[in-house]
Design brief:
Radius of gyration: 17 Å
Number of helices: 5
Order of helices and strands: HHEEHEEHEEEEH
Structural class: alpha+beta
Largest sheet: 3 strands, mixed
Strand order of the largest sheet: 1-2-3
Strand content: 25-35%
Number of strands: 8
Distance between the termini: 56 Å
């Protein structure tokens, strides 16, 4: 049997807990930075914002589950947070969620495109970082 990736295990363990508590998983990553490993879990709250208490609740749950399962051999730092305003648009559902919104867009490649001011067209292997544009900036660019 193939060994599961750490992020697959995390996502499996959070699959019921997050929706039952009013959250949704945005993404998770297990990365090495310098000599240290980090398990980062980004969560969203539909119709609201993530608080420190929310992060503590999720961190407590997944930390306990990971201690029980012990799937990570190395020492690591567990971080739980909101994806923030500069969240990347990764999945097709991210593009649908923000359809019709005016955003500032930073492109890492020239493959992504904005059609008009409000329609986004996802392109394979491109990550678009989006942040809402302030009303004053909307008027200045119109």
């Amino acid at each position: 049997m193939a060994k599961l990736k750490i992020t697959d295990i995390v996502e499996r363990e959070l699959a019921d807990f997050l929706p039952e508590n009013g959250y949704e998983l945005f993404m998770s990553e297990y990365v090495k930075e310098g000599k240290d490993w980090y398990l980062r879990i980004y969560v969203d709250k539909p119709g609201g914002s993530i608080s420190i208490e929310d992060c503590e609740k999720i961190s407590g749950f997944i930390g306990k589950r990971l201690d029980e399962l012990d799937p990570i051999e190395k020492n690591y730092f567990l971080e739980v947070s909101s994806p923030g305003l500069d969240r990347p648009l990764i999945k097709d559902s991210d593009y649908v969620k923000y359809k019709g919104e005016i955003m500032n867009m930073l492109r890492k490649t020239v493959c992504a495109m904005a059609l008009g001011a409000v329609t986004l067209a996802p392109v394979m292997s491109t990550t678009v970082f989006a942040a809402p544009v302030a009303a004053s900036e909307q008027q200045a660019t119109a």
